[in-house]
Write a structure and sequence with these properties.
- The protein has about 375 residues and is of the alpha+beta class.
- The chain folds into three domains: about 100 residues, no CATH class; about 120 residues, 2-Layer Sandwich (Tetrahydropterin Synthase, Chain A); about 50 residues.
- Helix content is about 35%, strand content about 25%.
- The protein has nine helices and 16 strands.
- The strands form four sheets. The protein has a five-stranded antiparallel sheet with strand order 5-4-7-2-11. Strands 8, 9, 10 and 12 form a four-stranded antiparallel sheet that branches.
- A hairpin with a 3-residue loop joins strand 9 and strand 10.
- It starts with a helix and ends in a 12-residue tail after the last helix.
């Protein structure tokens, strides 16, 4: 190599990195013949750091600012102790620019459902997903532990590893919280912030990164559990079942009035039955209002009382014990008239034969007559 080629190899006016990408973490500056020489100017912009590697060993890290690369410049005197090889042997090294801005909206999610113990439902499988943000806060540590000699390092090369760590931490945090899955939706922000504070020191010590944000966007339940919750919510919306039944009956009457001659026999009977039932209710309320000397108002009339509860008796027979209505007991006796059937109800001294209980005996079919002579 001639003298002027050595001069060309040593001469660098400006060392800087103009980056317009949104995913580049580290960029190795293309130094001609890998020769870092005296009298050059280093420009480090906001959101960047420059790392000098001297003959294979990391030497200095420079924050934002402009530096004259010279042996007499105190900020980098440790890097250029001396240009002792003169022009024939230029000083060897690499320059890495590291982006220290925040990398936001990095997506994370569980690859498959994980199982957690819900104190109310029991074991349940759930999924979770969201976004996270981070930045490089220790460029030297990040270069040593993660980048190595990679000349162009992007977020795609590390996000997978970060996601694995974050999801593992989230699963552990949910398991330790022992919180019902139905209450997790109200704790998304607290859960994300707690996990960020817990995981950030580990990332700083091992990767030179700081986790600036961790957001839980959604925690989803299996389809069958969601269907069960929807039914439970629907029951809660119905409220007073008696009032809901009356409302449905009134709608049926209005629909029947609008159907002129249509619907068939089944629809006619149904409409007639509803009409008779509603007519009885409304008629009774009107009569009550007339007796009291008032005016009937269908909007303020009280609903009818609930129907009386069916009577049941404790039954013991050939097929075991159960609690049945008199009609069901009579059916069992008719099916097996020669068997032993005993009944009991609270307040009785003991079990009675079915023939001693009038409300059951009245429902039992009489024995058939003997055959004709």
């Amino acid at each position: 190599m001639g003298f002027w080629n050595h001069v060309k190899a040593q001469f660098l006016d400006v060392i800087e990195w103009l980056d317009d990408s949104r995913d580049t973490l580290v960029y190795r500056f293309p130094v001609f013949n890998q020769a870092i020489t005296d009298k050059s100017r280093l420009i480090v912009r906001e959101g960047q750091a420059a790392v000098f590697v001297s003959e294979g060993q990391l030497s200095d890290v420079f924050g934002p600012g402009t530096y004259e690369i010279g042996t007499r410049n105190s900020p980098i005197s440790t890097f250029f102790e001396s240009i002792k090889y003169a022009l024939d042997y230029p000083y060897k090294g690499d320059i890495y620019f590291v982006s220290t801005r925040q990398f936001t909206q990095q997506k994370w999610g569980t690859a498959k459902p994980f199982t957690t113990m819900d104190p109310q439902i029991g074991p349940v499988r759930i999924r979770a997903f969201g976004v996270f943000s981070y930045r490089v806060t220790d460029p030297a540590q990040f270069l040593r532990e993660i980048v190595g000699t990679d000349g162009l390092f992007t977020t795609d090369e590390i996000n997978g590893q970060l996601r694995e760590k974050l999801v593992s931490g989230l699963v552990s945090a949910i398991a330790q919280a022992k919180m019902p899955v139905l209450e997790l939706a109200a704790q998304y922000m607290n859960l994300g912030e707690a996990l960020r504070e817990q995981m950030s020191p580990w990332f700083e010590d091992n990767y030179g990164l700081t986790m600036t944000d961790f957001t839980v966007s959604n925690i989803s339940l299996p389809a069958e559990v969601e269907a069960m919750l929807d039914k439970r919510s629907s029951m809660g919306l119905l409220g007073d079942m008696s009032a809901f039944t009356q409302f449905q009956a009134a709608n049926a009457l209005e629909t029947a009035a609008g159907n002129e001659g249509g619907g068939g026999l089944g629809a006619g009977l149904m409409n007639a039955g509803v009409g008779l039932a509603m007519g009885g209710v409304v008629g009774g309320q009107m009569a009550q209002a007339a007796t009291a000397g008032g005016t009937f108002n269908p909007q303020t009339a009280a609903p009818p009382p609930p129907p009386p509860q069916a009577t049941t008796l404790h039954y013991s027979g050939p097929d075991g014990q159960s609690q049945l209505s008199p009609a069901d007991i009579a059916a069992k006796i008719n099916a097996n008239p020669t068997g032993k059937h005993h009944l009991w109800s609270p307040g009785w001294d003991g079990w009675k034969d079915w023939k001693e209980v009038s409300e059951v005996a009245a429902l039992v079919a009489p024995p058939p007559p003997p055959p004709a002579p």
